[in-house]
Each structure stands twice: as structure tokens, then as C-alpha cells.
Write a structure and sequence with these properties.
Structural class: alpha/beta
Shape: globular
Strand content: 15-25%
Oligomer: single chain
Helix content: 25-40%
Number of helices: 13
Distance between the termini: 41 Å
Largest sheet: 6 strands, parallel
Strand order of the largest sheet: 2-1-3-4-5-6
Length: 450
């Protein structure tokens, strides 16, 4: 039985794509290798959002080529995903020992191409062409992978992005927006819940743009809110989340949904990117600081305890110290629970790469460190405020850092570590928080019915 190892770089979309490819290959008779050292096929699912991610994947492949071609020449090596899409044949030209380059609309072809490569019917494969219907072509899940029933699952509801932020290469690597039907998504969610999944995260590049060209507004409710309403009644489904949205997608209908759909978790990942109106305009984000804060205020009015996560970029071209201080003040004003922080990275053929006043790397580094310290301080305050409070968690399984303990998440998406029994996996439990670090909560095992 051939074995495959997939290493994933980047976002949750990439994680979902890797899972789907792995599940597809398992269905075709492949085993999942515990590491690259024993695998017959090694695939790198790549990210292009930052240059660092691309260089990391390229460096990894250089090392894999050196090791496998010397000791295991029959191993099939491949690039998947966004960097594969953007660089295509150029990856083979740079690394001739790579066998497969598979773009973002071709994941469902992985098993077919790997069979051809392993059987010698093809020497190399590069496929980055667009494919109509690809958004609905791959829905496999590893819900029973590794001998464990999955508790949570990502469900991809669309592909592509039309936003065209000036810093972002994703519209080129993922293509234009293409949405699945509500019926197709609901059917997939029902299948997952029937196999034991309790929490589903609806996934899209800009998830709140779902169906806006295909599904008309109904009684003031956008296509995305209609989808939430369609998924909500599934028996056995306990929680619904979604990522990543865009502030422009937070209409009053979506904000109201947080108050009237009990399964929709009080958690929002709301990328701000900057606190400066001038920089937001240069980024082509389509909202102002005031509008962003208005959305936060409305969400907290509906769900006062909502957990808020954001994305922030430092060092965007032209960012002055005053602009950066606007971002610092936004973080303090909102009080985010979590954040993903990035140093601006020029991407090929994006408008921002050609802007004047590129910020020196040492300035980006210094601002990144300052903002990181503030985010830790603010996030720590939010987490420490939970100490002594009872929270409900969905138990996902053993903690990655300490398998002797269990981990779960609150409805507001905070991680909780506690001592429990294996039978608690997949259960909703009430735990009292006893201590907190910057981004992790710890529960008292004495309040859990062991």
C-alpha cells in the first residue's frame, strides 16, 4: 500500500484542501504516512500570501529533493496550492526533480495524476488551468482519520476572491468567486454530523461574499445568512462558525443572526488590517476605521461577550509612525481576544508592490514587535478576565502540547486545557477557569464529572 505525507503551509483554506486531498487518496488505497521519512509520496500544499511562506516551501522542497533522490529515488514529490498556481511550470524549471505541480482548482485530480506518475504513464504533471465547477468537486473529509472520530470539520462553501486588496495575490491564485449551492452544502454538513461532527466551520476566502451573484437577497437576508439559516436546523449539530469574512459583509442581517441563531457561536474573525483610514484606502479595503468600530459596537450590542479576532498588517507602503499609532490605538480601543499579525510582504504584480515609500524592513520589524507586545497585553487581559468563570467547551481531544490533558474551545473560540477522560471527547462540558496565559485558558478538573 503506497503512503502519502502532506505538509501544509498557510491558512485554514489550505488545511481544508490538504485534508480533502488526503481523504481522496485514502479512498484510493493510500495510507497516511506519519512523516515524510517513510512516505512514497510527499506533497507540499503551499501559500503565497507572504514571501516568507513561499521561501519556506521552496527551501523544504530543495531539502526533500536532496534526501529522496539520493536515498529513495522512487518517491514522488509535488507542490499543491497557491504557489503552485502562481508559479506553475516555473517550479519545475527551478526544481526539475519535482514531479507534480497542481493548482488550486485541481485538487480533485491529485489521485489521478499520482497514479499516472507512479505507474510511469507521465514523467511530470503541471496543471494550473481553471476548471468550471471545481468549488463543488472535492468534499472528502478525514472524519474517521487516525482511528478517531472527528469532532469539528471545515466545510468549503466557495472558492476565489473578487475583493482585490492592493496587497493580496489571492485573487490570482484562487481565481474569481464561485459558490456552491445551499442544498449541496447542507447535504455535506448532514453527512458530517451523521459521522459524529458536532461543530462545523463554513469556509471561504471571503466567506460573507457567499452566493451574492447567484442567490438573491430574501426578506433582507443575504445569501450567506440564508445559508446559516439552512445549516442551523441540522439535528446533532451543536455549533456553527465561519471564516474568513470581510467587514463589508457584516450587514445588519448578519449581526442580527448572532442573536437569533443559537448554534452560531459568539465569535467573529474580523480582519481590520490597519487602524488608519489613509492606509485602509491605499489597501482598497472599502471601509473606514469608524465603520469598523460601528460593526464591533453592533456585534457587542447583540452578543456582549463575543470573542473578537482580527488580522493586522504592519509596514504597508507609505505607513508613517502616525498611521501605525492609529493601528495601536485601534487594538486598545477594540480589545481583541486574538489576532494574526503580519509584516507587509510585496507580492508579484500586486498594486501595493509598485507603491512609493516602501517601508524599510527594520521599521517593519520594530513595528511588528511593538504591536505584538500590545496584542499579548490586550489578549492576556481578556483571557485573565475569564478566571473564576464557568465556560462551556466542546472537547476536541488531547492537547497537542500535553497529550495527557484534553483541549476544547469556548463558544467565543478561546482554547481551554483541562484534565479529563477520553470519553469526554466530543462532549459539551461546563468547566470553571482557574488560570490563564496570554491566549490559553486552563480549567479546574474538579468541576468536571469524571
Amino acid at each position: 500500500m503506497p503512503s502519502v505525507f502532506i505538509k501544509t503551509y498557510g491558512c485554514q483554506m489550505n488545511e481544508r484542501d490538504s485534508e480533502a486531498v488526503a481523504a481522496q487518496l485514502v479512498a484510493k488505497g493510500y495510507a497516511l504516512a506519519p512523516s515524510e521519512a517513510t512516505a512514497d509520496v510527499i506533497l507540499l500544499n503551499t501559500c503565497s500570501v507572504r514571501d516568507y511562506a513561499e521561501q519556506k516551501a521552496l527551501g523544504k522542497m530543495v531539502n526533500l529533493v536532496a534526501e529522496t533522490r539520493r536515498h529513495r529515488p522512487g518517491v514522488v514529490l509535488g507542490f499543491l496550492g497557491c504557489m503552485a498556481q502562481s508559479r506553475g511550470q516555473g517550479l519545475i524549471d527551478r526544481l526539475p526533480d519535482v514531479d507534480l505541480v497542481l493548482g488550486t482548482q485541481k485538487f480533485h485530480r491529485a489521485a489521478e495524476y499520482l497514479d499516472d506518475l507512479r505507474a510511469g504513464r507521465r514523467a511530470q504533471v503541471v496543471d494550473i488551468a481553471e476548471e468550471e465547477g471545481s468549488q463543488s468537486a472535492i468534499r472528502e473529509h478525514l472524519v474517521n482519520g487516525h482511528g478517531r472520530r472527528a469532532v469539528t470539520a471545515f466545510v468549503s462553501i466557495m472558492q476565489g476572491c473578487n475583493q482585490r486588496c492592493t496587497f493580496c495575490i489571492v485573487p490570482d491564485t484562487r481565481g474569481a468567486e464561485r459558490s456552491r449551492s445551499i442544498a449541496d452544502i447542507v447535504a455535506e454538513c448532514r453527512e458530517l454530523v451523521a459521522q459524529g461532527v458536532k461543530e462545523i466551520t463554513l469556509l471561504g476566502q471571503i466567506v460573507t461574499s457567499y452566493g451574492r451573484r447567484e442567490i438573491p437577497v430574501n426578506d433582507g437576508r443575504s445569501a450567506f445568512v440564508q445559508l446559516l439559516e439552512a445549516v442551523h436546523p441540522i439535528d446533532g449539530l451543536e455549533r456553527i462558525r465561519f471564516t474568513s469574512p470581510h467587514p463589508k459583509g457584516y450587514g445588519d442581517d448578519l449581526i442580527a443572526a448572532y442573536g437569533r441563531l443559537p448554534k452560531l457561536c459568539e465569535s467573529a474573525h474580523l480582519p481590520a488590517q490597519s487602524g488608519s483610514d489613509r492606509i485602509l484606502k491605499l489597501m482598497h479595503r472599502g471601509y473606514t476605521r469608524a465603520r469598523y468600530l460601528e460593526i464591533i459596537e453592533k456585534l457587542r450590542r447583540v452578543q456582549p461577550g463575543i470573542g473578537l479576532c482580527t488580522d493586522l498588517i504592519v509596514g504597508f507602503p507609505g505607513e508613517t509612525e502616525a498611521d501605525f499609532e492609529e493601528t495601536l490605538s485601534l487594538v486598545s480601543e477594540v480589545g481583541f481576544d486574538q489576532a494574526y499579525l503580519f509584516k507587509y510582504s510585496p507580492r508579484k504584480d500586486t498594486p501595493a508592490a509598485a507603491l512609493p515609500d516602501q517601508v524599510p524592513m527594520e521599521v517593519r520589524e520594530e513595528r511588528h514587535a511593538r504591536l505584538f507586545r500590545l496584542l499579548n497585553e490586550v489578549g492576556g487581559q481578556k483571557h485573565r478576565a475569564c478566571v473564576g468563570q464557568p465556560v462551556q467547551i466542546l472537547v476536541e481531544g488531547p492537547s497537542k502540547k500535553n497529550p495527557a490533558r484534553l483541549t476544547g474551545r469556548t463558544r467565543s473560540n478561546k482554547i481551554v486545557i483541562f484534565a479529563g477522560a477520553a470519553r469526554h471527547r466530543g462532549q459539551l462540558l461546563d468547566v470553571r477557569i482557574t488560570r490563564a496565559s496570554a491566549f490559553t485558558l486552563y480549567g479546574d478538573p474538579t468541576v468536571v464529572n469524571l
